[in-house]
């Protein structure tokens, strides 16, 4: 089984021992993305809406680097520090995902660095066999 690493082209800082994404058998698996400053590796705190937008922009950058778009995502897992932010997060999430929405699980989790959201995804690479 051949694995291909995918990196966010805008990432300058190391934020841990993981790959931003891995391609295997026509699928792109994207690690949990959060509201991080990709130059410094520091968390970017703000209202849930801003943190979700930044997180999904980072997710989109990894998707693009792997040959995908948001439309190719089939599955997301979302971790919210406070499940009471669900409605506000969900509105922003729908700005990025249109049409047939990916399957999704959203849970409340203890997140590091004081961030409010982390999102991972699985996407099918267009034209993959």
Structure description:
The protein is an alpha+beta fold and 129 residues long. It is 22% helix and 28% strand. The chain contains two helices and six strands; from the N terminus they run βββαβαββ. It has a six-stranded mixed sheet, with helices on one face. A hairpin with a 2-residue loop joins β2 and β3. α1 runs parallel beside α2. The longest helix is centred in the middle third of the chain and has 18 residues. The radius of gyration is 14 Å and the shape is globular. The two termini are 14 Å apart.
Q: Give the proportion of residues in helices.
A: 10-25%
Question: What is the averaged pLDDT score?
Answer: 96
Could you give a short account of the major beta sheet?
Answer: 6 strands, mixed
Per DSSP, the total helix count is 2
Q: Give the N-to-C terminal Cα separation.
A: 14 Å
Strand order of the largest sheet: 1-2-3-6-4-5
Q: Give the low-confidence spans.
A: none
Q: Which H/E pattern describes the elements?
A: EEEHEHEE
Secondary structural class: alpha+beta
Q: What is the percentage of strand-forming residues?
A: 25-35%
Q: What's the total count of β strands?
A: 6
> What integer value in Å does the Rg equal?
14 Å
Shape: globular
């Amino acid at each position: 089984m051949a694995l291909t690493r995918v990196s966010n082209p805008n990432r300058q800082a190391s934020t841990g021992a993981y790959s931003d994404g891995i391609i295997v058998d026509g699928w792109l698996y994207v690690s949990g993305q959060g509201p991080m400053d990709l130059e410094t590796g520091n968390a970017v705190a703000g209202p849930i809406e801003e943190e979700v937008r930044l997180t999904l922009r980072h997710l989109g950058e990894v998707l693009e680097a792997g040959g995908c778009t948001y439309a190719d995502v089939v599955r997301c897992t979302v971790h919210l520090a406070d499940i009471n932010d669900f409605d506000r997060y969900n509105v922003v999430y729908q700005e990025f995902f249109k049409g047939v929405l990916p399957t999704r699980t959203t849970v409340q989790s203890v997140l590091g660095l004081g961030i409010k959201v982390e999102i991972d995804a699985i996407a099918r690479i267009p034209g993959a066999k």
